[in-house]
Amino acid sequence: GGGEGTVRVRVAARVRPLLAIESAGPRRAANCVEASNSSVAVGKNVFAFDHVFGPSADQHEVYEECVAPLVEATFQGIHGTLLAYGQTGSGKTYTMGTSSLPSVPGGALQRAIEAVF
Asked: Could you tell me the CA-to-CA distances from 36 to 14, 27, 49, 67 in Å, in that order?
């Protein structure tokens, strides 16, 4: 397009902790995923991201790094999109905060709504 400005797409990855069933017993999962600040290594393959959240990252940290800047930008008239993508069971519902279980801390959507209103 017509020189309308730069569009910046940021991609972050969140590596969830292993579930109890994955870390014990005969079907124990191997610790094959290594997360750093900007990359995820799976076996010999390394994937680069703008930011990587390891298994110990909490909802607040994810919100502050990825969602708060989008919310602030909307007040300046800039459009933004938050997209969760991944396998079934990878933590999308948990991260976005759409599980509606009382034991799950508020996710990205609840925090964004609270910031706006």
From this structure: 11, 26, 10, 20
